[in-house]
From TrEMBL:
Keywords: Isomerase. It comes from the Bacteria. This is UDP-N-acetylglucosamine 2-epimerase (non-hydrolyzing). Coiled coil: none annotated. It holds the Pfam family Epimerase_2. GO terms for molecular function: UDP-N-acetylglucosamine 2-epimerase activity. The keyword Isomerase applies. InterPro entries: UDP_GlcNAc_Epimerase_2_dom (IPR003331), WecB-like (IPR029767).
Amino acid sequence: MRKIKVLTVFGTRPEAIKMAPVVKRLNENENIEHKLCVTAQHREMLDQVLDVFKISPDYDLNIFKSGQTLSDITTKSLQGLENVIKDFKPDILLVQGDTTTVFAGALAGFYNGVKIGHIEAGLRSGDLYSPYPEEANRKLTGILTSFHFAPTEQSRENLIKEGYDDRKIYITGNTAIDALLEVVTDDYKFENELLNNLDYDGKKIILVTSHRRENIGKPMENIFSAIKEIVEKNSDVEVVFPIHLNPKVREIANNILKGNDRIHLIDPLDYLPFANLQKRCYFIVTDSGGIQEEAPTLGKPVLVVRKETERPEGIEAGTAKLLGLEKENIFKEIDLLINDKDEYNKMANAVNPYGDGTAAQKIVNIIVESSK
């Protein structure tokens, strides 16, 4: 049988993490000829993940520029990918998630008559502008997709409600779990000595992340003010906050949180140390999407500081709790998880709804079977 030509496209750190297990399985399969194209929508953070997983792109569009707009990313990706598609002539183009690279990749494939496989298909927040532009990207990509690789039953149901053919929807689990299980170890040593020296057994170490565009301003001020008051109230708590590089985020964080010796404001972490910090911490407060999937695998409760989430499975399973953005409620729920052991154990021991670490192999098997 002729080998199936598969082109994988991604451009950011989160995509690279979740695509890395898929890339490995594709490269191992004797029925597939695989090429990888990175847009480098993010440059430095993307390269870090490629190094961790020992992945080398076949095509690198290198589109990143300081101050780039969504239009810049879309047009440069479209133009670059058209050349790649004409050179490689793939049968299937794979994208993952909801970045602007994902939408541009799907559109480039569509324009050139290539079938699209969308990994992590069917996530929906219900608000086209939150998260922005991710909710629009994932919905627009869905329209162009031939293979919807949905991580959960909820994602499948979202797609069916929108009129997609159930025969083209495949529940696979989330590839984030595959990636996480590859890199987390009990004996991991951090390069940052502060992280090695924290008392993970004697203290309750809370990991905080916050970076979403829609939270910048008053919502972020509420989050950080609640965290500051939590530390002041609970002497057994320390906070580690790897601050996003966005200068607006850093300004708010420094204004509110700087100066407390139990709040550690550090630079962003690469994927490997961040994954292992998730394993060591007590629980996580975040507005990230991916962490809501990863932390349950490690038995870590997740408190989500957002108004809505496109990952309701974790909320329903009890691994995560949606707090909203009012300071009083954020404080109350964090304090509850610190001081109520029963509540903590209930969340820490809830069943992870996002899969068992075999999603990448399932995706590759579906591609091969569908081409017979």
